[in-house]
């Protein structure tokens, strides 16, 4: 799957998970930019991504992600394995 | 998130609309609280993200949702793990169960202290119930004990912890507890032999759960069988080790929707909102084929073919529900003689006509028939569950009567039993003698109403019933049924004050109160306990705190017999006046004029509709009634 395609899907998931009316997707987006993004909704975010792409992360693979772009990369890497 | 056919789906609910996000946005933005639209959304299989978003939208209408016919409920959660995921999504699930829910979560790690400490935040929140969500780690049952005695001690200690927290709920919070069972681990230490080792985690968990359920069975508290819920989903899917290690979330995030639904069933049952009657279609629901076209020989029912056995299983399930007190009714588009044919003449049928409290076979629309059924049984349409194989009929009923539960059973009869029973419409907290006999009592009720049509003159009819009313003070034998009536009666209930069994017991012992339980029997059978009154003895006036009655015996002049009896006791005690109050609720308009009809005088009316009433006993004479009263005087009389 192309990177753009993955980030578009993750943008959709973010709207569902963080209850956003609209989202200007940017790789640099992080919990600092979105009010509803807290430790708990973060877990729903991860699980929603896992379901959507049919993959499972380990704690180590996700605990150091700094922004959405890194999440997109993590998904892309997992999918290409 | 969950696929429709996944183990996490609420398969009895229709799929949510495609544009949930847009609908929620519109609902949130509208000026008034659109209860119907909110409820319609909640009645679909929403995932955890959607539940949270609907819950958030609901919070915008904080004050208003209470006035919309939803039953308010305050739930406190005391847990040994993270429960925020549930507490943030529960309000939307609760809406599905006609509840307006507020959740108070004890802060993480503070659960036990908050319960045991008097005047804690949790106690001050005055919840209607406290959920005790403790996992096996917190109760010392997460490691094997390879010594039988140690295993037994560990189980008893864990039960002791729970017992002290339950006692704290009663003493410090004044609310019943809902206690979760423990989910056994997926992993075995020995393999199958774990089942034979008393101290394996699996064996200890199972033993703990069995003892917990037995010990809580007869009290005011409820068991929330999470172990069974996890088994339904499958432990492999239920357990999510990463979530546990990362965030102390006890199970897979996708299981939240199911967990919430199972919990809300218990809350609704505590509020008396569990369903009471199963209405069944006939063709392709109770048997395969169409009786009017295929005839007696053509329909498929009974042993020998898979389809016939699937329909037999549906009948067996209906029969079992009837035995535990759920009423059965038929609503079928058929000519009546055709519809009745299999019940008389098909040897394989398990269900017979006598099992049904109402039998509607005609060509009217199903919604109208359901209204007739509810009216005939003297229950609300919100107490009905409607099982029909035809998606068009299901949709018509959902649209005209959204309060009726309509399981989305699909088109495969092999799945009907599973789908209907997984929906949990008939959640019960107790099983009393009254439940065992209910279906028969309703049967007698229908004979009464047929008899009434013949009897013509009402006074004549009432006399012919040969009614005997038994009025006695609260006692231990009646306590459970008294609490059940106090918590379930909605329509004929002057003040809608709910009480736990412990409170009922306290009232029974209180010399400052006159608390009476009333039973009614007649020539057709025993109606059981049907009425409760509680008066406060305030010197020379007695004030009516509670007056409620089962609608089954409406129009039988029981109220007048009860007042005559109370007046007699009051006079004997030198009391001059009785007072009463009516507090309006969403459901009790039926008794707005209760005191006026009994001859009380209005002394005060508040803007919220509450009214106060007074009866000078000097001006009261008891009427001539068609009811014989058999009474025992109260001990404190």
TrEMBL record, chain A:
<dbReference type="InterPro" id="IPR036736">
    <property type="entry name" value="ACP-like_sf"/>
</dbReference>
<dbReference type="Pfam" id="PF00550">
    <property type="entry name" value="PP-binding"/>
</dbReference>
<protein>
    <submittedName>
        <fullName>Acyl carrier protein</fullName>
    </submittedName>
</protein>
<dbReference type="InterPro" id="IPR009081">
    <property type="entry name" value="PP-bd_ACP"/>
</dbReference>
<feature type="domain" description="Carrier">
    <location>
        <begin position="1"/>
        <end position="79"/>
    </location>
</feature>
Automatic annotation (TrEMBL), chain B:
<dbReference type="InterPro" id="IPR036412">
    <property type="entry name" value="HAD-like_sf"/>
</dbReference>
<dbReference type="InterPro" id="IPR010033">
    <property type="entry name" value="HAD_SF_ppase_IIIC"/>
</dbReference>
<feature type="domain" description="BF1531-like N-terminal">
    <location>
        <begin position="74"/>
        <end position="263"/>
    </location>
</feature>
<dbReference type="InterPro" id="IPR036514">
    <property type="entry name" value="SGNH_hydro_sf"/>
</dbReference>
<protein>
    <submittedName>
        <fullName>HAD-IIIC family phosphatase</fullName>
    </submittedName>
</protein>
<dbReference type="InterPro" id="IPR023214">
    <property type="entry name" value="HAD_sf"/>
</dbReference>
<dbReference type="InterPro" id="IPR010037">
    <property type="entry name" value="FkbH_domain"/>
</dbReference>
<dbReference type="Pfam" id="PF21211">
    <property type="entry name" value="FkbH_N"/>
</dbReference>
<dbReference type="InterPro" id="IPR049369">
    <property type="entry name" value="BF1531-like_N"/>
</dbReference>
